[in-house]
Every structure is written in structure tokens, then in C-alpha cells.
Fold this sequence. Notes:
Chain A is of the alpha/beta class. In chain A, 46% of the residues lie in helices and 16% in strands. By secondary structure, chain B is α/β, with parallel strands linked by helices.
Amino acid sequence: MIQYIYDGSFDGLLTSIYEAYYRKEKIDDIVPEDSVEENFLVEKIYMETDREKAEKVYVAIENKISKESLVKVFYAYLSELPRHGINILKYLELGFKVGPQIDLNLSNDIVLKMDNIYHKVAKESHRMIGLIRFKLLENGIFYCSIEPDHNILGLLAPHFASRMMNENWIIHDVKRGIAVLYNKVEWVIKDIGIVDSLMIREEEEEYQELWKTYFKSIAIESKVNPKLQKRNMPRRYWKHLVEKNF
Amino acid sequence: MDVLEKLKILSDAAKYDVSCSSSGSNRKNKKGGLGDAKPSGVCHSWSDDGRCISLLKILMTNYCIYDCAYCVNRSSNDLPRATFTPEEVVDLTINFYKRNYIEGLFLSAAVFRSPNYTMEMIFQVVRKLREEENFNGYIHTKAIPGADKEIVEKVGRFVDRMSVNIELPTEEGLKLLAPQKNKDSILKPMNLIKTGILESTEERKKFRFSPKFVPAGQTTQLIVGATTDPDLKILRLSEGLYNSYGLKRVYYSAFVPVSNNSKLPAIKSPPLVRENRLYQADWLLRFYGFQAKELLDEKKPDFDLALDPKCDWALRNIHLFPVEINKADYNMLLRVPGIGVKSAMRIVQARRFSSIDFYDLKKLGIVLKRAQYFITCKGKYYGLKDMDSEIIRNQLVEKSPMGQGYHQLSLFDQVSLQDKYIQIGGQL
């Protein structure tokens, strides 16, 4: 069994796909560096990220398959789900054969799988747009921490960059140790470790208190339905919600 | 009174308005401004009753000159009253919005002094938000029945959505429970908004930058179960509102007993299942190409509480089934119980590539619990022996396992105290 190991970047993944195509090896999976597991039976081949090769694959997907497929591949990469690498490879192999119509063929297992992964990531990203809770820090920056299942920071950033264009804000993915920073002009994604203590502005607690009060009083007691609440707002997100975390 | 106290009172008073969505508008942020609106809308939280919280839903005031029997804010009700100042509402909205608690503001009001005065209060807030704070998030306000044309139009130019609540589906109902209101006073502002929207769309065809008027359209709310009106009347009214008033949504609110007025029905808990059935039927009207008369008629004016309206319709029209999944057109697929808009689209998409069998349907994520009785795949039927509506009905109606005197036995129900010690400590 052969596994390709890439550095975790999208370019790295595309390079691996390029190599897989031209080396014609039968590979078992394409894995990012940080989730490699020790396995006696597996032969690991480390892939050097090559921008030129990645660019070629990128353009080929866009031209020979479709823009939508490129988005699907990118979302599958962001999903960080197990075996996403090999799924992408198989999907693209089929895509280069079939062409732009590939996404219609939902009765094909691999197309369906990619479609499901796409919806999973898109759903979490949409959900998170609502579930983010900013805190106003002493220095005037709006800060929030999240722990999403998928690596969706890059999908969240444009939304907030347009909505809060006149504020400084940080969205911190605590699980992955990365954060998106915005300075009223542009946003960047940077590695950020654990933040121990945040200096919070005085009025912040007041507004949190107001929000909690509102959250409680807006519910109709005779229609209480915790099951529905949990279905819409899964428990794993509660830790970072002002109204649910006390 | 401080803001916290006011917020408690005035959000509590607003909670019976079930409208919550923040969809339908694509307002863009302006340079240096705050906020925008997404056409899909965004939910920000879900309260303990499972409803989504998208907007800061509050009343401007809960002092009311009216005395409608079904309403918590009726003038004869003894409860704490409060009034926000425009500044307080603006401050709450902006600060909640910046913390991403909400998608915008839903400002309603009890009728304070006069309809025009109340509308003017609402206008103060939305003008401040849009002009002074450069706020471009979502705003939904009420149009107060009886307010003048000028003030309704002034507010309409700033907001994304407006609504006038009809509440009671018949004039008799209004006479009985809300004698100070009448049908005309409610329909007049709805008409105003409708013509305003039409005019502004016309205008924008000629001049691209002419101001929008209520771009996300108008909605209304009907109370279910406060009067004896059957579902048929309610559904017909909704159909009429969608067709002739161009409404975006009709909301249904199961009546929550808020007073023991003798004119109101004596119920212990709100009719939630009935509310659910009406929503299902409403969806059938809007997205599935059904008409009210297909779902209900004079002989059967109420929905079956045990079965959803689409199943019910299919069983009454069993001669149309089973349909072949590989051949039926999109509109017919939509009428199969268990197949929704997404599923129907997926089927149509997938079968262009290859014909679909039963297991492909499962893979596509189509729920076959109900659909299996009404379809064939490549000519094969996977349901019961006969296409008999009675037998299928029995399969579909959810049986209540409790209530017949049976219950699941527990291993630990009748454990003696001593046994409990053993359980905990493992020894005596």
C-alpha cells in the first residue's frame, strides 16, 4: 500500500494529485502531514509541494470539469474528514473522463460522497456565521473563539469582512490553533496558539447580561422543546455561546 | 427603569409574534457602515422552545389602547408596562449586532395613544439606525392598522420587511375578540405596502438607484385555535393572501391561553400539532403546487392530526399511485409523500444519467418510510401487497406505544434499598 503525504496545504494536495496521475501508482490514500498514522504495511511517499504542478491541476479542473467541481474539491479538502484525499483523487479521475456533467451522476458512489461532504462543510459554515459570538476587548478588537468540525475560517472571513468592514476583529479556531485577523482593510489567516487571558472591556459584560436576559424571556414556556433546540443548535457548539455557557 | 428591566418586559411581550426570519433582502453594506443582509437569512440562536432567534424582537412599548381578548398586552391585563426610548433601541441593536448575536431588528409595538403616534415612534428608530448609525442590517417592523399612508410609506423606505398581523381569520372572530379592530383597517395597510412594493419595482426598472421599498416583502400572522374557525377557512385565507396580496409568508401561531376570558376557548395547552399541520399545508401551497381546495373541503374542513396533509391527500387519491420514479415528471414527484423539493430535484438530476432503483434512492438520501408505498422503481413495487388506502394508512399513522397500559420494564424500578447500596458500593 502506498500513501502520499502532503504538507497540509491545498497546493500540496493538488501536487499529490498531479503526481498520482503521472506516476500511475496504485495509491491507498493522500494524507496531510499532521494526520499520518504509523502503519507497518504502508509505504509513505512524501510529496514536495510544487506550485507549478498544483496550478496545472487547478486550471485543468476548472476548464475540463467545472468551477463547481473545483469548489467541491476545495470543500472536501477543508472538511479534513478521514480519506478525503483519496476521495478527491477518485472523483477527479472520473471527472476528467466524464467532463462537466459529473455532478449530475449522483447514483455514483464517489460523486454522491463528494456531494455529501460539500453539503456538510457548507452547512457548518452557514451555521457558524450565526453562532459566532464576538467579545469586545479592551483595545477595541472584537474577538471570538470557535471549534468547528471542519476548517472553515477561510469561508467565514469574507462574510464578516463585508458586514463588519469598519471594525477590527479576530475569529480564533482554538481547535486548529489558527485565526483570521481583520484590520478594516484586509483579512489574513495566521497561526495563533492558546490565548490565556483576554482584557475585556467593561461594558462587555453588560451586553452579555442583556443578551442572556433576552434569550431567556423570548422563549414561550408552554412550547418548550429542548429536542428541537438541540437539533438546530448541536451541543458541541454551546461551549462558545454566551447564552448557553454559564 | 433600567434597560435590562425594559428589555425583559418588552421582549416577553413580543414573543407571541412568531415571525422570525431575516430572509429575502440583499441589502449591501455601505462604505464605513455596519451590516448587510443575506437573501437566505441567518439564524443566530435557538431559544428553549426550539424557535430560531434571528432578529432582536421587541416591542417599542406595551402600553395599549386596545383590549383584544387573545392578546397579553390588552389594556385590561394587569402586567408591568414599559416604553423604550429610540436611543435605547438603537444602542441595543447596534451592540447586539456587532457581537453577532442578531441579524437585525424586529420592531413591533402595542398601540400607544394612536396608530399614527405609534408609527411615528417606530419611524424615529429606523431613521436613526439607517441615517445616523449607517446600519445596513435587516429591519422588520409592524405597520399599525389605522396609521396614515404617509407615515407607512416613510417607514417602508427604510425597512426590509413589514407586516400587519391579521390574527383572526374571520370578521366574526374579530367582532368577538377584538371589537375595536375591523377587517378594513387591517387590509388597508397591507394594500398600501403592496402598492408601494409594486411602484418601487417599476421605478427601479427605469432608475436603478431609486430607493427600495420593503424589499423583503410583507408577512402576516394568524392565530390558530382562539376561535372556532376550521382549518379550511384559515388555509383559504392564506391562499388568497399569497395570490392577491403577494405575501411572502403567513405565520401560524398556536393560541397560548393568556387569559380566562369567557369568550375564549378553554384549552390547557396550545394546539401545536394543528399549527404544525397548517405549516405543512402552507408549504404545499407555496412550493409543491397544491391548491387549498385539494387539501380540504366542506366535507372535511379540518386536517387529520395523525397524518400529514400530503399523505392524507395521497391516500384520498390513491388511484394516482404508484408512480414510476424513472418516468414521473417533476410536479408529480413532488406530490409523492416523503419526497420533498430537494429529493425531487435530486431524482430528476440523477436519472438523466442512469435509471434509478430502490437502493439508489436510499443512497440519494431520500426518506422511503412514507414514499415506498407510493412509488415503483424500474416497475417494481416495494410497498405492501395491495394498493389499499386503508392498509397503507394504518402503516403510516404513528402509533403511540404508551397509553395502552403498556410500558417498558426497567431493571432497576423495584430495587430495594439494600440492593441500591450494593449497586453503589459493589458490596454490602
